[in-house]
Each structure stands twice: as C-alpha cells, then as structure tokens.
Design a protein that fits this description.
Elements lengths: L4 E5 L3 H13 L5 E6 L3 E3 L4 H6 L8 E3 L8 E5 L2 E5 L4 E4 L3 E3 L2 E4 L4 E2 L7 H4 L6 H13 L3 E7 L9 H15 L6 E6 L11 H13 L2 E4 L4 E5 L4 E4 L4 E3 L2 E5 L2 E2 L16 E2 L12 E3 L4 E2 L1 E7 L2 E4 L4 H19 L11 E9 L2 E8 L7 E8 H15 L4 H16 L7
Helix pairs in contact: 1-7, 8-9
Amino acid sequence: MPARTVVILGGGVGGIITANNLRRRLPDEHRIVLVERNAEHAFAPSFLWLMTGDRSPEQVRRPLVQLLRTGVEFVHGSVEGIDLNRRRIVTNAEDITYDYLVVALGAELAPETIPGLAEDAQTFYTLDGASRLRDTLARFSGGRVAVVVAAMPYKCPGAPHEGAMLIADCFRKRGLAGSTELHLFTPESQPMPVAGPALGEAVRQLLHSKGIRFHPLHSLTSVDRQTRTAHFQQGEAFQYDLLVTIPPHRPPSLLRDTGITNPAGWVAVNANTLATQHERVFAIGDVTAIPIPGRWKPDVPLMLPKAGVFAHAQAAVAAARIAAEIAGRQPREEFRGEGYCMLEAGEDRAGFAYGDFFAQPAPQVNLRQNGKAWHLGKVLLEKWWLASPGPKRELYATMLRAGGKAYGVPVVI
C-alpha cells in the first residue's frame, strides 16, 4: 500500500479528534498533518466557568501538541490557500500536498457586522472575552443585563441559556438578585428550537425559575454605546447596564472560491459520510452546513447545530472512512446525527439533553432532570479533553463511558 498524506485544517475539537484517530488507525508510513494558526488549544465549554471565576485561563488551555498523539505532525501556521485541483495547501509556514483533506476550520466570530456591537458588548464565546466578563461581573453592582444572541447560526445552541443562568447564579451569590434584571434575547422562536417544542418549553421554564426574562423573535440590528441601547429589527429598543452577546458567526472567507461551499459560505457535505463533492475531501464540525428534518421558518430549513459533540462524532467517522479507504477496505462508518448537551444551570447543577437530530419527521430530543450528576459529567469531560493522550486520559474515558452507561446514554469518546 503506497504511503499517503492526510492533511487536517483546523485544531479545534474536530481537527484534534480526526488527527488522533487517524494516527491510531494508520501505520506509521502514512503522514498525518494538522495545520492550526494557534499554538494553544482552549476548551471552549469551560469558558462559562472562566466567566464565573471557577476556572483560570491556565486551567482551560493546553499547548496543542500536548493533545496530539505521537506521530501527528503539527504545522503552526495560517491557511492562506486551498488548491483542490493540485491537492495543495498554502500556509504562511509551508506548502503541503495531500492525498486526503479534512476541513475543520470552524466558524469565525464577526461582531463588527452589527453596528456598535464590537464597541460595547462583552462575550463568553472567547477565552479573552470570558476573562474580561469575569472581571466585569465581579465589579457589577446591579441594573439591567441583556444577554443577546446577535444572529443565526451560532455555536452551541445551549450556551446562551447556560450563560444567562450562570450569570444569574453569580448575582445570587453576591446578593444582587433583587437589584438586577436579567433578560435573554434571541432571533429564535423558542429556546433551542432545533431540539423541538418540548425541550424548548423545559428550558424556558428553567430560565423562568432563575428569574430570567426570555424574549424570542428579537433580531439585533445595532447597539448605541452612548445611550447603552440595543435596537432590534422588530422596532423595539432595550436600555441596558451590561450587554453580553453571542456575536454573529461567519464561515472562513478563504473557502469562498474553493467550490465546496453553499451560497452562504458554509461547506456542503454528505450528512452521513461528511464527504464533499470533491474526491478525498471531507469537512466536519462548525464549518459545515447539514440540513435536518423540520423548518426554523416556513422558508428556512433546520440545520444541524454547530456544537463540539457533533464535530467529535463527525471526526471519528471521517477518520474511520479515510483509514478504510487507505487500507483498501469499503468504508462503513456513518454519522447518525445523535448528540447530547450538558446544560449548566448554576449551583453546580446541570440538565442533560440527548437525542436523534436526523429523526423523522423532526429531531427527537429529551431533557433529563436537572442535577449534580450531569454537572460532574461535564467536569469529567473537561478533564478528559485537557489530558494528554495516555493512561490518565484513558481512565477519564473509561469513567465517562461507565457514567453514560449507568444513565442509559451512549458517550462518544
């Protein structure tokens, strides 16, 4: 069998899992190359705990090379071009030719696309943003707080609701609950509409129990820093003392002319195989656009949420299919659209949503009872992710699988 080179673009959840799984599956003569512009990897689900002061930046980030298996080549550089015809990747560090390509470049945050948003809003969607917001919350003395989903789509459908509930918990601990109003605005018709009305109503009730006022169908158009006012497409305006946003997301601009994107700029893939229309080119994670049963609006189909759990599962499938092809076997693994979310609610408690997002005629997702076990599960997932490949990481994986089995939930690790 001739030696092959597999190049993975992006060192997020999907990229790391793809690289490690391929290295485990393929003999050493095959090159596995991961290209990433950041030398350090930060575990995004922990940004919420960084915001609340329960973590420090050092606790939630690691040098990327520490998370990769021995034998994975790491190219520290930015992708500047993708030549699909010549099977060549141009970076500011070196050019690389490939036999197989996995695009895992994620989604970019673009607060500048809404007037005034970048100047006055804070966010927990980045490491630096969560650190700044932690300090702001510690100084906050009361008033009106707006948590705003600025635009669709966005990463992690549960994060805005988690963020709002954890902020409410911060205020409760500081004795500010009586002097603070907390509002959550979103363009969506309900919390997490992709998961169905039953789960949406359960999350709505959870928000209500925390004193959070939920405002659906509110599309942000601009922010006035001078008057501290958020303006919405519906003609409404909201004056705030603190504005926390989930910024607009956009696809990586360098993909625009590659021929693998849809009109919105996201990569179109086969929902089950993650293959693009180009031979030996796969895409996984937040950079993809995968339609699922149901509609968000009459003329807008539902799309698979952009979430780490899906990037993880897709990476495992893409790696397995590539390894099978290289070995001369028929690929059989498929992505099934199953996923879960541990929904942090404050007070060291979390809910657990699990379901089939490919189910007909609509996704079937259920929310398990809020409790400490699910919070501990998320803590264990964090420990597993940030551990270097080796015995300790395998121990965490065994514990996660055992916990999932005990609660009747399959855990993909």
